[in-house]
Hints:
With 148 residues, the protein is mainly beta.
Amino acid sequence: MASRASLLPGQGLARLALLAGLLAVLGGCQPGSEGGETAACEFTDTALRQVTGTAPIDGDTGVSPTTAIAVFFTHSMHPGATAAALSIVPAAPGTLTFAEYDRRLTLSPSAPLAPGTVYAVALNPGVVDGCGVPLAEAPYTFSFETAP
């Protein structure tokens, strides 16, 4: 995903230097032709949007029926799109919250989960970050089993 930023005359050389230095690290930044007071910078964000962990972890057994279910991401994800793409089987009604700059999605069940039950959690296609970049691995699935 490419981004473009410009600094115009009158915005000051200090801001130009800061912008140019930051974007030069991220990608190509080219000074303008007007005495260095304008710049056009582009960079490409190639980092994958991924799940970095879950709680409970995939394959966990003996999980407390009162546990919350959480998914951790490398990037801030779009709350509405992520919530819409989440499925849990069997259903686990509860409250969805986002935290840590939308990098953690948590379902707090409104009632204890069924004992001795395997829960399958999926993040289906449609999970995107705030700029519309999709989760690299969708569907992303994990499962756990509650204690008897």
